[in-house]
Write a structure and sequence with these properties.
alpha+beta; five-stranded antiparallel beta sheet; globular
Length: 185
């Protein structure tokens, strides 16, 4: 058990772990996580997570987590077709929505219990396992100083992405990170 992480900052990370675990449990598909809020299969987006926080008088009041999972085949716009997938496209059979929902809720409940109990290492370890192929990937993002490129290394105790840029490691807390390709080393 650790006490130096912020449970609210790990909510999106924990949700991604839960969705990837639920998809794998129901379908057997090798779901992985792409920081900060996507679940992917073979590099194509299967699910996304969005967390919105309400702050009152400078204090976190509540967080709403929304999850979208592509269940069925559909005609995607041409600019998205090669970057997205669905459970039906990956398994060649329509998914059972009720079973998927039940597994997602159970997994979310387990990971929320980890957050409440301060079991942050369990969440971080699971995230690292589920994002293993993306570690070492070339990434770029827009910083206040302009476009920055580096290699994804890890996440820290608060869920920020750690990116090696030359000799130093940059900490990215939020924003759009473009994943160029996974490393083969």
């Amino acid at each position: 058990m650790t006490s130096d992480a912020n449970p609210a900052s790990l909510l999106t990370i924990a949700s991604g772990v839960a969705i990837a675990e639920a998809v794998h449990a129901v379908t057997g598909l090798p779901a992985q996580i792409k920081w900060p809020n996507d679940v992917v299969i073979g590099g194509r987006k299967l699910a996304g997570i969005l967390a919105e926080a309400a702050v009152q008088a400078g204090a976190l009041h509540f967080v709403v987590v929304g999850v979208g999972v592509n269940l069925h085949r559909t005609a995607y716009p041409p600019d998205l077709a090669s970057r997205v997938t669905s459970i039906e496209a990956e398994t060649s059979r329509p998914p059972d929505r009720a079973v998927m929902l039940a597994e997602i809720l159970a997994a979310m409940g387990e990971r929320y219990a980890d957050l409440r109990a301060g079991r942050f290492d369990a969440i971080l370890t699971a995230w690292r396992r589920l994002a293993a192929s993306l570690r070492g990937a070339h990434v770029e993002w827009e910083s206040p100083a302009g476009m920055v490129r580096g290699r994804a290394e890890d996440i820290d105790r608060d869920g920020a992405l750690l990116i090696r840029v030359g000799a130093k490691v940059e900490r990215v807390v939020s924003g759009e990170v473009r994943w160029m390709h996974a490393s083969s080393d």
